[in-house]
Write the structure tokens for this entry.
Amino acid sequence: MRFTRRGKVGLVCGGALFSLFLLIGQYWLMRELSWTHREPPTDSLIGFNFSCDQAEYLLLEDPAKGVDGYVPDARPGRNEWCASVLDTLFTETGAHTVRLSLQWDDIEPREGTFDFSLTDALIASAARNQATVMLTVGMKAQRDPEFYIPDWARVGVDTSDGTVLSDSPLLRQRALTMVAEAVQHFASSPVIDSWGAENEAYISSDRAAEYSLSREYVGAVVATIRANDPERRPVSINHAQHFVMDRRWQTVLADSDILGQSMYPARNVDVLGLHLVVDIMQIGPLMPNYAYQARQAKAMGKPFWVTELQAEPWTDEDSRLITPAHPSSNLDPAGLLRNVRYARQTGAQRIYLWGAEWWLYEQRLGDDSWLAAARSAVASARSE
């Protein structure tokens, strides 16, 4: 059979269209097979995560000025400033719960010398705003660099890359002493309604030399929290599962009172020079079956919470380069609301949004849409 040039072009175009339709069909099929799309949305309690360091980074600091562009932790009025930022977030969003993390190098700068004043100020803010606090304690906390181990606690400890830090008897004992002191200090606060044992405890940290923690040590943290809290408030361990093959959520469920998960749906992928944003929650049977996890937790008398839900763009660059004039292709306010609805369809009783400090940064640049989306998410979960 002889083809004309026009015929060859037609075949190529037809093949390209067929491939395009095939990809669209595969995407539709995978989306329809996604576990959670079959679940009705839950009336979840929606709050947010908060870090004073992150608020300072976005709202006060300018690395372009060198060392003069960073604000010191010891500056006068720091605690009050951080608490005022938290006040603003409560007011702007209407949320009534927040997840905080203690940073070890901040609360115990010298061995045996504790300073809880910053967290005291944040808890006072929550009380003023009729909000509850989920407080995470341990070596590992939210935000970079995750492991906030003070210099004095590293003395005599192997901190080479890839180390299971909790295998050091010296560091382990120092950490558990800190956990006990912290829980004893905060246990009298009625604002705290739950604890977190470490942050993403069973995941090694790519931000901190691939450090990791053992299951036995995390269990000791949970036991220490319980032993020092007369109110016996529930203790969460959270995980960050991206694919269904990761079964560590079962360990989390077995070891804690609350099964927590981190969810970051929008991921950046570079393929053949193309920059793509892939929603990993739309990959059908490959994605985690969070709704099943919620049902398994409920069968054991335990809640399922989303302790981190992506509500700011995922970027490897300085997030301050994302402005209203140069928005990120990774996530927009409409995507934030889609993420919230997705998380509600898992059956999560609570959802803590990730990125609250960044919403205020964008507002300062004249974009109120992120705060408006967060406010809408909080309100919609109550009204449906």
About this structure: The chain has one domain: 34-383. The chain is about 40% helix and 15% strand.
